[in-house]
Amino acid sequence: MGRLVDGQWTTAPKPARKDGRFVRKPTQFRDFIRADGSTPYAAEAGRYHLYVSWACPWAHRTLITRALLGLEDAISLSIVDPFMGDDGWTFGPGPDLIEDTVGGARFLHQVYTRARADYTGRATVPVLWDRQRDTIVSNESREIIRMFDREMRAHARHDLKLAPPALHAEIDAAIDANYDTINNGVYRAGFARSQEAYEEAVQAVFAGLERCEALLSRQPYLCGDRFTEADICLFPTLLRFELVYYAHFKCNLRALRDHPNLWAYTRAIYQRPGVAEVCKLDQIKQHYYRSHESINPPRIVPGGPELDLWAPHDR
Ligand SMILES: N[C@@H](CCC(=O)N[C@@H](CS)C(=O)NCC(=O)O)C(=O)O
Predict the structure, then answer these.
(1) How far is the CA of 55 from the centre of ligand 1 (A)?
(2) What is the model's pLDDT at position 281?
């Protein structure tokens, strides 16, 4: 996996941490679109462009939010190839991919250096690009979905509030609670380089899942009766659980299907109009099993599991 150092792409290995832990660095582009004009990023249709991968759970949050709000005409899209090799994320052509129609880049890292010529860090998806100022607004999924929901409302086709102001604190607390344990927990387990770091992460993943399982036995969604951003942030990880995290990231104490409420909840969200269309299960498997050579050296993509995401649910 490569990264940018002072604007130069390098695949030179980074020295591993002594404790074997995987630590995700904070994202660096943290500007905000504001409908009230209080930032240089006005809430205009046709101005912003989203760079994503179908495979990435963080990017998946932004794709689901864009689809549920009906922002497809307001925010354009580029979709990178699921294979992430020495060049990092690259643009198509390929099935279900969309090239960089804004800047004609071949590699995603070129989008980063176009925004900041001396950027140091990983070139990650999602990226929200501003055509007018020719720069990145944000590369933080959680903040991008909040902008879509709160600030781009005038351009949304569907009248859906994913983060009603009265629930902000509760939604943020739910997203925080699941981030370390579940969303990033699976990565901490999968990329651990010591037994101790792995054990710690895998226990946290399943403790987090048990907590959600208990919560969802009492209420339909993480924040009560309403479907919110907190559900959008959890769903991409649950969808990937049996597909990749169980085997590839060794999160195998139990399957997701062993948690009846979580499994039904996952199917219920998958079956909401507009969601299945932005869930490309094959691209998810292709990305993880083929891109992480250190975990899966022969890069063989398993045939299973057989998942019936359309099975009826009672939620
Ligand atoms: N904090 C970021 C995380 C984004 C992220 O790590 N994306 C991964 C894909 S799953 C990526 O692009 N990784 C490329 C790399 O690390 O080189 C967010 O939530 O938006």
Answers:
(1) 11
(2) 98
Distance from the alpha carbon of residue 141 to the mean position of ligand 1, in angstroms: 9
Let me know if 56 is a catalytic residue.
Answer: yes
From the candidates 187, 245, 246, 288, give the one annotated as an active-site residue: 187
| pLDDT confidence of residue 191 | 96
Q: Do residues 216 and 234 make contact, with C-beta atoms less than 8 angstroms apart? A: no
Contacts with 222 (C-beta within 8 Å, 6 or more apart), sequence order: 174, 178, 212, 215, 216, 228, 230, 231, 234
Average pLDDT of every residue of the chain: 97
Report whether 7 contacts 119 (CB < 8 A): yes
Q: Is the model's pTM score more than 0.85?
A: yes
Mean local confidence (pLDDT), 83-95: 96
Chain CA centroid to CA 29, Å: 16
Report which protein residue has its CA nearest ligand 1's atom 6: 124
Domains and CATH numbers, the chain: 3-155 (3.40.30.10), 165-272 (1.20.1050.10)
Contact 144, 138 (CB under 8 A): yes
276, 309 in Cβ contact below 8 A?
yes
Task: Report which protein residue has its CA nearest ligand 1's atom 8.
Answer: 124
